[in-house]
Design goal:
By secondary structure, the chain is of the alpha/beta class. It has 2 domains: 215 residues, Alpha-Beta Complex (Spore Coat Polysaccharide Biosynthesis Protein SpsA, Chain A), CATH 3.90.550; 86 residues, no CATH class. It has an 8-stranded mixed β-sheet. The model has no long low-confidence stretch (mean pLDDT 93).
Length: 330
């Protein structure tokens, strides 16, 4: 450590890279290179970037070529290391990346997120305090059409602006979070059949141990989901994941799980209604589109209810959730 400046590594998972364009990945990596150059000029040591991917070791050169083609500056400001986790799922890739780090702080970002200016310095600054264990950033969905605006309104990320209260209640953003390495190496993302469950379980583990999560304004945007196939699949998975979280955190009682599926349906329907009505104008959505956005939002959480109810009742088996090839954008 140089003075009170921690060393850091950045783990970038490449699961989502399978479903977006390299042009889009290049945008995020280009901004990342600029952010690293900025904090390096301020005195931070050059980091190691761990590219954790679901392929094989032999795929490393192809990935390096793609990255150098899109962002040649990245290898000038950081050391790139590629680690394979064949067939690895989202959190498995993150845990795999931790093993290749050796700095004081481990930062997690995704291949389909794009940092805003000063993201890295804001995320690192709290670690000047040796008692800081976890710093959670601010992630929101990018939008550019009716469907992406609707996803931004109903999604579990806060809106880009005017949504700090909701952001403060969110679980850890696994695509925009940093940990002391000695803690996260001993407490990797928990194993779970769910698609996006482990970050919530890890947050509860932090709190059980008495660690405060620092919420910082380190902002990134996430590329929006696309297509009705993803809409339907993700809604059902959202419901099943809600049941998995309830089992792990609240109770495995089948009766309570079934009751929760109904209460969550009502809660999320009301939440969607409030958020669409309140926030749709700030997205630039025309007034005539707002009722349709509300219909899509309510349809999403109705499908989520069926996913939740199906798993809670045992009508659906608790299988490992894997992103289907037909989904497209994730």
């Amino acid at each position: 450590m140089s003075g009170d400046l921690p060393t850091y590594s950045i783990v970038v998972e490449m699961e989502n890279a399978k479903t977006i364009d390299w042009d889009e990945i290049g945008v995020g990596l280009t901004v990342l290179a600029d952010e690293i150059a900025s904090v390096s000029a301020a005195g931070f040591a050059s980091p190691k970037i761990i590219i954790s991917h679901a392929g094989h070791d032999a795929d490393a050169q192809s990935l390096r070529d793609h990255i150098n083609s899109e962002t040649p500056r990245l290898e000038e400001v950081a050391e790139l290391r590629f680690v394979a986790c064949p067939g690895g799922r989202y959190y498995e890739l993150k845990n795999n990346g931790i093993l290749a780090t050796d700095a004081d702080v481990v930062i997690f970002m995704d291949s389909d997120t794009v940092p805003e200016s000063n993201w890295l310095s804001i995320l690192l600054d709290p670690f000047r305090n040796p008692g800081t264990v976890c710093v959670n950033g601010y992630t929101y969905l990018f939008y550019d059409d009716f469907f992406s605006r609707t996803f931004a309104l109903i999604w579990f990320f806060p809106m880009a602006r005017g949504d700090k209260k909701f952001a403060a209640k969110r679980a850890i953003n696994a695509n925009n979070v940093a940990f002391r390495r000695d803690w996260i190496a001993g407490h990797p993302f928990p194993q779970n059949n769910g698609f996006k469950v482990s970050c919530t379980l890890l947050m509860h583990q932090l709190r059980r141990e008495g660690h405060e999560i620092v919420h910082a304004g380190a902002r990134v945007y996430h590329y929006p989901p696309r297509g009705w196939r993803f809409f339907c699949w993700r809604a059902l998975v959202t419901g099943r994941d809600a049941d998995r979280k309830f089992v792990e955190i609240q109770s495995p009682s089948r009766a309570r799980r079934i009751a929760k599926s109904f209460s969550r349906w009502a809660t999320m329907s009301w939440r969607v209604t409030r958020r669409v009505v309140r926030h749709a104008p700030q997205t630039g959505m025309p007034l005539w589109q707002i009722p349709f956005s509300l219909i899509f939002g309510l349809a999403f959480y109705t499908l989520a209810f069926f996913g939740h109810f199906g798993l809670a009742t045992g009508l659906v088996r608790d299988k490992i959730e894997i992103l289907p090839d037909y989904v497209g954008h994730s």
